[in-house]
Each structure stands twice: as structure tokens, then as C-alpha cells.
Specification:
Structural class: alpha/beta
Shape: elongated
Oligomer: single chain
Largest sheet: 6 strands, parallel
CATH class of the largest domain: Alpha Beta
Strand content: 15-25%
Strand order of the largest sheet: 2-1-3-4-5-11
Radius of gyration: 20 Å
CATH superfamily of the largest domain: Response regulator
Helix content: 40-55%
CATH topology of the largest domain: Rossmann fold
Number of helices: 11
Distance between the termini: 20 Å
Number of domains: 2
């Protein structure tokens, strides 16, 4: 991670935590913002915290729901918020395609819609979208893995993948596809197995089973935070530190500490900025409600965190604590 990228990431953190839309710019009655996420991992918790704290700092009322990976529950929540007459919905959509029709109904009802994380296939539905390209996330970690495989494993790797395709097929496919393409450059790489496990407890079990069934695997890649945590713990539990190396997506204090740990298990992750993304989403919703124009599409920077750059990892941990 270069010092320039680190400065950009930390500047984004500072801006998101301090910028608010003054209530004088909004209607006399405090706006109501509904915040919807699709699971309860740390990434989504940070995302929702960014929405909540930024909106409440501006005097808005915030309603929150986690639909726990249930498309029907998401649709029901959106329709409930339409009936209630909220002013804005800030959402991490469960599906780029299937979440669209309900959110289109919200727009038609005069509700501001801001999409976070993966966004929507029909970008015209949302007033604003804040996201990080999922294929780029996978490619970033894949490039780090490619260098590691070439330098440490003699250019050969047998890889097990933990994905989340049954939850979010588009996002999961982009993250795993980006990784596969990048890690194979200049190396002889075999993808031994790809299985779903995106929450830590399940990921420990799945990763353990993968290692047991395929003792020749020497790399595990996980496409999200929960999967990465589980893969890391599975390697430790199996006593395979120094034999199996983990790469992943997302950043958290736990993953940062994994990169700094002396066991040499977790090698690199590509971190997003969920709190900042949520904060920017809330700011955009408030700005639209105030009659201002906002950018339709905003890319939120991601950042490679690597065991080879402990100072960068430490700076990241400090920025999110």
C-alpha cells in the first residue's frame, strides 16, 4: 500500500466522519431515513453505523433493518417504508437485479433512494450509488496472491475458495473471478474447490472440511470478511500455519490483527471503507432532500492490506477503531 493510497483512505475517513448536511437546508420537519442491509457481519454493521451516525448528526430520524439474506423480507421492508412515507431509503441491495422493482416503487412514491455496496443493475433507479467494483476487489487480492505464489510457493498453488454465490451471485462471482484471473498470471494455479461460506462460524467448518478432504491445498481465498475470518481460524485449528496461506476481501480490526500475527497465516486482504460508504450515502440522501444535485455514481476507494506492510495495516486499524 503506497503512502498516497493510505492518505487518500484516511482522508476519506476524516471527511465522512465530519461532513454533515445542515438541517437548515432541509424541511422544518426532521426527515426519516430507512437504512437496509442484508446481513449482520462487521462490514454491514460499519456500513449501517455510517448511515445512522451521519444522518442523526444532521437531525434526521433513522430506521434500521437487517433482512438477513431474505429477498422477500427486503421487498416487504421496502414496501413497509413506502407505506410509512419515509423520506429516503439508503440500502445495500441484496440483488442487483431483484431488488430493483421494489426500489423503483419507492422512487415513484417520491422517496429518495441511495444504493450502497454493489448497487443496482438499473442505475437509474437510485438517486445516487456508492460502491467499490467487486471484480477489482478480487483482482487486488489476486495480484497480491500471485506475487506470493511466485516468490514463496515456487509459482504453483492449489487453491480452495470460500464464496457467497447462493447469497449474492453477482458480487460473489465478480470477487472470485477477479481473484482467479489475477492469481493465475505467471503461475500454475489449480482451483481445487469452491464452496459457499460467508459467516465466520460456517466458514470455519467448511474450510476445515476442505483442508481435510484436500490436504495438498496450500492457499485459501475467501470473498468476504466472514469467510476470511473462518478460513484463517480453520488453518490455525488444523495446525497448518506455515503450510496453508489465506487471502481475503474486506478489512476489520480482527483481520488487521491477523495480518500482524506471528503465525504467518493471513497474507493479504483488500479492504473497503464501509463506514465511509454509509456516511456518504446518508449525506447524499440528505442533500437530495435539500434540493441539491449529487453525483449519480461514486466509486469508494479500496485498499490492499498486506503482511508485507505492517505500518499500513496498523494505520488502517487505527483509522477504524
Amino acid at each position: 500500500m503506497t503512502s498516497l493510497i493510505r492518505r487518500q483512505f484516511l482522508a476519506l475517513t476524516t471527511a465522512a466522519m465530519t461532513a454533515t448536511v445542515p438541517m437548515s437546508a432541509l424541511a422544518d420537519e426532521a426527515p426519516v431515513i430507512a437504512s437496509i442491509v442484508f446481513q449482520g457481519d462487521q462490514f454491514m454493521q460499519f456500513l449501517q453505523s455510517g448511515v445512522r451516525e451521519t444522518a442523526e448528526a444532521a437531525g434526521a430520524e433513522v430506521l434500521e433493518i437487517n433482512i438477513d439474506g431474505d429477498q422477500a423480507a427486503e421487498i416487504q421492508a421496502i414496501d413497509t417504508y413506502i407505506s410509512r412515507g419515509v423520506d429516503a431509503i439508503v440500502i445495500a441491495p441484496l440483488s442487483a437485479e431483484n431488488s430493483g422493482p421494489a426500489l423503483q416503487r419507492a422512487r415513484e412514491a417520491g422517496i429518495v433512494v441511495v444504493a450502497l455496496n454493489g448497487g443496482l443493475a438499473d442505475a437509474s433507479i437510485a438517486n445516487a450509488t456508492f460502491s467499490t467494483a467487486n471484480r477489482d476487489l478480487g483482482a487486488s487480492t489476486g495480484a497480491a496472491a500471485a506475487s506470493f505464489v511466485a516468490e514463496t510457493l515456487g509459482g504453483q498453488a492449489r487453491v480452495g475458495i470460500l464464496a457467497f454465490s447462493s447469497l449474492l451471485p453477482e458480487q460473489s462471482g465478480d470477487r472470485t473471478g477477479g481473484f482467479k484471473d489475477a492469481v493465475a498470471k505467471g503461475n500454475e494455479v489449480t482451483i481445487v474447490t469452491e464452496q459457499d461460506a460467508w459467516m465466520p462460524e460456517a466458514a470455519v467448518t467448511v474450510a476445515t472440511d476442505i483442508l481435510t478432504a484436500n490436504p495438498d491445498i496450500n492457499v485459501l481465498y475467501a470473498a468476504n470478511e466472514g469467510g476470511t475470518v473462518g478460513a484463517m481460524q480453520a488453518v490455525r485449528n488444523a495446525g497448518r500455519s506455515g503450510e496453508v496461506f489465506v487471502f481475503g476481501i474486506d478489512g476489520s480490526v480482527q483481520l488487521g490483527r491477523g495480518l500482524l500475527a506471528g503465525d504467518n497465516v493471513l497474507q493479504a486482504v483488500t479492504a473497503q471503507a464501509p463506514y465511509q460508504m454509509g456516511a456518504m450515502g446518508a449525506e447524499a440522501a440528505l442533500s437530495v432532500l435539500a434540493g441539491e444535485t449529487v453525483e449519480a455514481q461514486t466509486t469508494v476507494p479500496a485498499m490492499l492490506l498486506s503482511r508485507t506492510d505492517p505500518d499500513g495495516v496498523t494505520a488502517f486499524i487505527e483509522s477504524i477503531q
